[in-house]
Amino acid sequence: MNMDRSTLKGSSLTYPLYSASEVQKHEGEAAISVGLSLWDLMQRAGNAAYLALRSRWPLATNILVLCGRGNNGGDGFVLGRLALSEELQVTLCQVGHSEQSAGDAAKAKAAFMAAGGEVTGWQPELLAKADVIVDAMLGTGAKGPLRSPFDEVIACINNAGVPVLAIDIPSGMNADTGWVESYAVHATATICFVGRKLGLFTGSAADHVGELQFNDLGIGAAFDGLVESCVGLVRRQTFNPLIAPRSKVSHKGDYGRVSLVGGDQSYAGALVLAARAALRAGAGLIATITHPGHQAVMLAQQPELMCLESAESDELVENRLNWADVVVVGPGLGRRSWGLQHLQATLQQPQPLVVDADALNLLAAMPDIPYRNNWVLTPHPGEAARLLGCDIEEVEQDRYAAVRALQKKLGGVVVLKGPGTLIYDGQQLAVATVGNPGMASGGMGDILCGIIAALIAQGLTISDAAALAVCIHGDAADMATIMGERGTCATDLLPHIRTLVNP
């Protein structure tokens, strides 16, 4: 079996993601290489934003443009001038210190005023007549707590009930992390330029970005050639060659053996969910190692399972672990002595491991957490915080830094769950934006670790298996919520998993 963890190559990442500083540093050079100036880029950005506005809200006639003093505000001035040229009603408010506009932003402001536009100061009453608000206040370089008057303005925008188009980034959101310190604009749509910013795709961004559009302003290829990114979006379809149709002469032994360890007293359901997901994701043979008294309920739920009841780790447990190509530990494991004993037995195994739930919590409590290259760890932010010895807010403030710290500390592949799940193998960092709030229910993590194990058992590297499993998991949840997100159960994903592993 291929245990290489470093095969999540750039070709698996559909779009590269960049930090705000990378874009700011290299966009000028990219523009010059194709014969453009930064002023030309501002014109293109303002025009792209205006076309996005007209496409999204074709009947809007009253446009409120809120500009800051920097280049983000300059884009807003260009948009305002174009709206004036088509005889729309434009109210342009410069928020903050209007006299401090400089460079191209000041030039764009002058062009707007020369076209007949007027610039006013902030007044909450301006929101009442707006059909659409354009957020061009704080660009991608803004970080830290909001200063007055931006905090007041953003609070008013969010309470106005008026659609919002954010230019490049919703004001108040960190462009590199997606973290919101205090307030951030809840945009209906966001248009991003030149390079897709890291913060638009994970964490709090899901509540603020809205419909995301991208325009490279005609310099995308030149920019990508200047900046090598090891972070990118990942999509299930890019992995389809790895799950090609099966040979007509194949048998169950060709598709791997998975052992799952967990299900302490009262927690059999979690292990059943993981085992059922592994079956639906295509593993050939599935065995469970669980607390005494669970065999009957497990086999009633899924008779294809081989179920071993274990009061304590012994030779039978060791044999069942040795039998497997990959071992899952954690679903329903609990934090009592039974769970710890079975985790310790599992950690002695040389084959790939998938570690989830209470197995992560037990690891975090160990004085010396082991490091290994052939495991997949799947923490949610709370488990990640315990493993790192910090609080949950620190994890969420910079999910990219957290997943890198976890992988550096523990090895293998780390899957940091949550909106914009992050998958990091020490070289490439994949971001999966699939899934929805209907997944906020018990058992979803058990389903994910079962899918990961099944894909490893079928021969995928642990990096590819983790990334593809996250995509299948999220896509299945999106399919399962066609009737609505509220009330979605983990078992609702199972038939869709089977569909998705047969592209």
TrEMBL record:
E.C. number: 4.2.1.136, 5.1.99.6
Any Pfam family: YjeF_N
Source superkingdom: Bacteria
PROSITE patterns for the chain: YJEF_C_3 (PS51383), YJEF_N (PS51385)
Co-factor(s): Mg(2+); K(+)
Signal peptide: none
Binding site for K(+): N72, D135, S171
Cross-referenced SUPFAM superfamilies: Ribokinase-like, YjeF N-terminal domain-like
Domain named YjeF N-terminal: residues: 23-225
Record function comment: Bifunctional enzyme that catalyzes the epimerization of the S- and R-forms of NAD(P)HX and the dehydration of the S-form of NAD(P)HX at the expense of ADP, which is converted to AMP. This allows the repair of both epimers of NAD(P)HX, a damaged form of NAD(P)H that is a result of enzymatic or heat-dependent hydration. Catalyzes the dehydration of the S-form of NAD(P)HX at the expense of ADP, which is converted to AMP. Together with NAD(P)HX epimerase, which catalyzes the epimerization of the S- and R-forms, the enzyme allows the repair of both epimers of NAD(P)HX, a damaged form of NAD(P)H that is a result of enzymatic or heat-dependent hydration.
Entries under HAMAP family matching the protein: NADHX_dehydratase, NADHX_epimerase
Record-stated family: In the C-terminal section; belongs to the NnrD/CARKD family. Belongs to the NnrD/CARKD family.
Protein name: Bifunctional NAD(P)H-hydrate repair enzyme
Taxonomic lineage from the root: Bacteria, Pseudomonadati, Pseudomonadota, Gammaproteobacteria, Alteromonadales
Originating gene: nnrD
